[in-house]
Amino acid sequence: MATAIEPATYTAPEIRQTQMLIGGEWRDSVSGKTFATINPATEKVIAEVAEGDAADIDLAVKSARAAFESGTWATLDARDRGKLITKLANLLEDNFDELAALESLDNGKPISDSCAADLPLVIDCLHYYAGWADKIHGDTIPIRGNNFCYTRREPLGVAGQIIPWNFPMLMTAWKWGPALAAGCTIVMKPAEQTPLTCLRMAELAMEAGFPPGVINVVPGYGPTAGAALVKHPGVDKIAFTGEHRTAQIIMADAAQTLKRLTFELGGKSPNIVFADADLDAAVAGAEFGLFFNQGQCCCAGSRLFVEESVHEEFVDKMIERANGRVLGNPFDAKTTQGPQVDRAQFEKILGYIDKGKEQGAACVAGGNRFGDKGYFIEPTIFTGVTDDMAIATDEIFGPVMNILSFKDFDEVVDRANRTNFGLAAAVWTKDVSKAHRIAHSVRAGTVWVNCYDVFDAAAPFGGFKMSGIGRECGEAALANYTELKTVTMSLG
Ligand code: ADP
Predict the structure, then answer these.
(1) Of 306, 296, 285, nearest to 395 (Cα)?
(2) Among 45, 255, 295, 439, which one has the highest count of C-beta atoms within 10 angstroms of its own C-beta?
(3) What is the pTM of this model?
(4) Do 166 and 195 contact (CB within 8 A), yes or no?
(5) What distance in Å separates the CA atoms of residue 194 and residue 124, rounded to the nearest whole number?
(6) pLDDT tens sequence across 351-390
(7) How far apart are CA 181 and CA 84, in angstroms?
(8) Measured at the alpha carbon of residue 300, what is the angle toward residues 348 and 42, in degrees to the nearest 5?
(9) 172 Cβ below 6 A of ligand 1
């Protein structure tokens, strides 16, 4: 590990957009307030961004409502909606380097990840949903009697979308893609830590030619701008990605207007390594499954169960890999781990590391802040972890790996399922039957076999239990943005 933080080897991108987008116009907030977005690698202010609250949300919802009700968007020929989404995807591709750099600047993720993971997935997602726009249709249904019965999938209306900071552009694409394909209009609130790429994407959407009011973006804080969006009677649905505690507040706030809700929330995903696995592949997969994106993934493999007979060998190999990670300047191509997104996350994670030590787990790698500038934390590994320790039950959302040991199949299934979460799981084995038995037994929305974090716009993603409601991606996500209408006509 441990190259010192080098001076920037990359010129930070120009910050083009810090205002909010309402009704096709860029504007300051009604209050005139702004908030600072911080570079987590240097702790310095990148830019001041317009801070929206209830007044701005109200304007944005009115504009989205008007755009929806004017019919120009929802009734545009579906294939032409798809063409506009394709145009946006192409514009993102044309501005690939700038967007990747902006994401790394605002979020702190290594530029190599922004270029190899985030941007390609974002562009692919928009192409995928562009293809769906003219393929959203109902059925004809043979009901009793001399009747003609059919269904239509109509756009749900105005979608309020609230996203987190761990994959700012990808979360934007996952939300915009299906909503736009379905013919909804959007009011998005990006995370206060990382508003810049969403604003730039919105700017490119305007360049692509989306009609005014179809996409509105209001940056601001959760309890003000976010809560106002959730409570607004002009919003038909809230799609939220973030912490389950925030989802509980949103569910309560949405009760008054009975909004449709879809949630993609946290996890404490089991990653299960059997003794018959290709151990080197499992070690590499476990490293990726936990440390990727600084451990800031809702599906992180944060309960790593390793079969007793290979536990010691696995731990030795894992320590070597963790110590080989390169922390430092996110703009250095060699960097594999950047800073945590902000001071609050940084302190929360260090608190969990302290708790792990206090509760008797063995810290066998890392365990400290890295450097003295920026929110960097050493890749940390705990062994001797028991199921009831805080590091094994709570979502840490940082580079903290917990290795637990198990004896047999039934035991590991039981322990894997003893959590209120159910977002993802993985299993490493060469035994095909065992792999499928695990895949069917673990209560999680996604199960990876001999791989981790394999995402695709076409593959549904979401949680069982307290990890979510509904699915992102794939055909499944279109249901989040449509209402099903039944039309029955008498032929008598
Ligand atoms: P984190 O703690 O990781 O930032 P959150 O769930 O708090 O995760 O944040 C995810 C998103 O939810 C952010 O855009 C945030 O501003 C927003 N948010 C936070 N609190 C609320 C709330 N009470 N109502 C609506 N949105 C909220």
Answers:
(1) 296
(2) 295
(3) 0.97
(4) no
(5) 22
(6) 999 999 999 999 999 999 999 999 999 999 999 999 999 9
(7) 10
(8) 45
(9) no
